Amino acid sequence: MDNSPLQVLTVPTGPYPDQRPSSGGLRKKVFVFQSRRNYLHNFIQSIFSSIDLPDRQGSAMVVGGDGRFFNRTAIEVIVQMAAANGVGRLIIGHHGIMSTPAASCVIRKFKAIGGIILTASHNPGGPDGDFGIKFNTANGGPANDVATHKIYQISRTIEEFAICPGLKVDLTTLGKQMFDLENKFKPFTVEIVDSVESYTNLMRNVFDFAALKDLLSGPGHVRVRLDAMHGVLGPYVKRILCEELGCPPHSAVNCVPLEDFGGQPPDPNLTYASDLVDSMSDGFYDLGAAFDGDGDRNMILGKHSFFVPPSDSVAVIADNIFNIPYFQQTGVRGFARSMPTSAALDRVAKATKIELYETPTGWKFFGNLMDAGRVSLCGEESFGTGGDHIREKDGLWAVLAWLSILAARRQSVEDIVKGHWLKYGRNYFTRYDYEDVDIDAACEMMEDLELIVADKSFVKQRFAVEEKLYQVEKADNFEYTDPVDSTICRNQGLRIIFSDGSRIIYRLSGTSSNRATVRIYIDSYEREDIFQDPQVKLAPLATIALKISQLHHRTGRSGPSVIT
Asked: Any residues with CB less than 8 A from the CB of 15 and at least 6 apart, and which?
């Protein structure tokens, strides 16, 4: 056996212009990473080069992914390049798999300088699907704009990358593996860890597992149905719900992570998680939940498929927050929601006299507030909910929070939500997603909309639909000044706010080389009339939203791809 030090190479390369990461990292079709020479290597080198050598030399970094196609290939490259770039220790999830919440947990537990998470979230997987690379910083949360901009700038001028091509790691065996390198950065250690156990230990410190076990397996127990959608969260669900809390095996479905997620997008909404909706319809199960590919998003259902809108979910958790032992110990410093999320959380904040922050979309903004000790609970309408136990949204945490509320109140999910509406009134909310739209048409539409909302004459304009009359009170492009570091974030969504508080919001997201997703958010508050179908209740505002934007005419669409 050859025990000589492994060779480190410096390989010439050239830049690509399209490696600008968002808060969700760099996401592209798998074939982009596979077919473009050194495309993966360039971006990984840009991440390492963005960290000053003294900071990364000998330090620990975390690596894991959601198990999608190309995950193992990318990890092999990351390991070889980490060694060549002076990283002293890599902590990798068993089989290369680690949920995004667990990655945040592990980064914080091992005091790593950051982590590389391989995920494209709820996007499709497989050879024809998407792949993503996301960098999280030492706090366990997504890199901020300064860090991602630095990565992007390096990617635009990169001329070479460092790699140790002979280094091979066994991802199947737990424990440490040591490597001797032919350079000054040695030794190099890889540790394969059980991230499921690390995450489970954290949850034991947040929730009362004894009370949850009694709820789920004691007399008159609550029946649950959790659908991992063949994403990364399957092993975590099985470990915590079935092994720890005593749920029967049929409580957890689609728990084997698959490279293509079983051929459907691992997106926990009423459209893509229709199997869960169907299984909840007969009333056998009391609570249902679905999760996305990397385990940070969640959808909550009650008996008979009663849907809990994410905006209401975080508001209900906020209103019952002291049923969670963690918050009994730490107290509650503040609440936060993303701007497009309904104002349901605001009403709880006002009643409890707890500070409320409205941020742009992106968990990094919440993380900054949490690090400053200003926020304890936050959520966004895109099925993300979380607390300050980590710095990512956390799908399984949200389910355990709901179970804690059920254990304390001994009411159904539906009764708890309807009771919340009776107490605070209801923010009717819907989101229309127009996926895979021509990017030129989408951008032109958004540019014209921006001209409309910037026109001072637009304010006070009235729109009549059937018997409803709406008058514009405010219109703008949402801008956020971070109260912690005073950084300003502009162009975060076009808002039309009416005199009754109703809102229409337009955002462009998911842009690729030639396609985009257009999202329309509609939010309207009612104090008395609280038990209507949201789509019926919000139909007049939807009509106005489509009239102002001319979206169907501009995109050739007759309706949204997904309605939430």
From this structure: 42, 155, 156, 157, 158, 159
